[in-house]
Amino acid sequence: MANMKSTTWEHQAGILLASLGQPIRIQILSALAAGEACVCHLESLLGKRQAYISQHLMALRQAGILVTRREGRFIFYRLADSKYLDLLLLSSELAGTDSPALSANTNTVCNCPHCETAT
Fold first, then answer.
1. Which of 14, 45, 60, 83 is the Cys-Cys partner for 65 at CB 3.0 to 4.6 Å?
2. Could you read off the pLDDT of 33-74 as tens digits, one per residue?
3. Is the dihedral of CA 64, 16, 62, 1 positive or negative?
4. What are residue 69's DSSP bridge partners?
């Protein structure tokens, strides 16, 4: 978690959990379970507007949950640590729901370098 070395573990955990406190952010992490993706990929997968997704990606990145890589004009997002997926699965279990099916970020229609080379 970025810039939190001087705070207590309780504060750090609270910031982390608050950062994940919106369903769309959990959907984004689930979509990134299969690997990195660009915003246009996530837009296609989640059926949400690019601006909406970008806002949440920024919050997750600022919290240190996501990291990025640039390829030309595209920015690719990925989980900073796979343990975030464990947290999602455990949260689902504790909430008494079925384990979520973590998304495979395939079968999208976008013009990112990954999709262009696949066609």
1. 60
2. 989 999 999 999 999 999 999 999 999 999 999 999 999 999
3. negative
4. 76
Q: Which residues does 72 contact at the CB level (< 8 Å), separation at least 6?
A: 113
The full set of domains in the chain, from first to last, is 14-95 (1.10.10.10)
The reply to whether the predicted model has a pTM over 0.90 is no
CA 69 – CA 16 distance, rounded (Å): 22
Residue 47 tokens read as 């059926």
Determine whether 97 is exposed, middle or buried from the number of CB atoms within 10 Å of its CB (0-12, 13-18, 19+). Answer: exposed
Bridge partners of 77, per DSSP, are 37, 68
Determine the pLDDT at residue 28: 96
Q: How far apart are CA 112 and CA 7, in angstroms?
A: 39
Whole-angstrom distance, CA of residue 83 vs CA of residue 2: 16
Sheet containing 74-79: give its strands across: 37-38, 74-79, 66-71
Q: State CA 94 to chain mean position distance.
A: 21
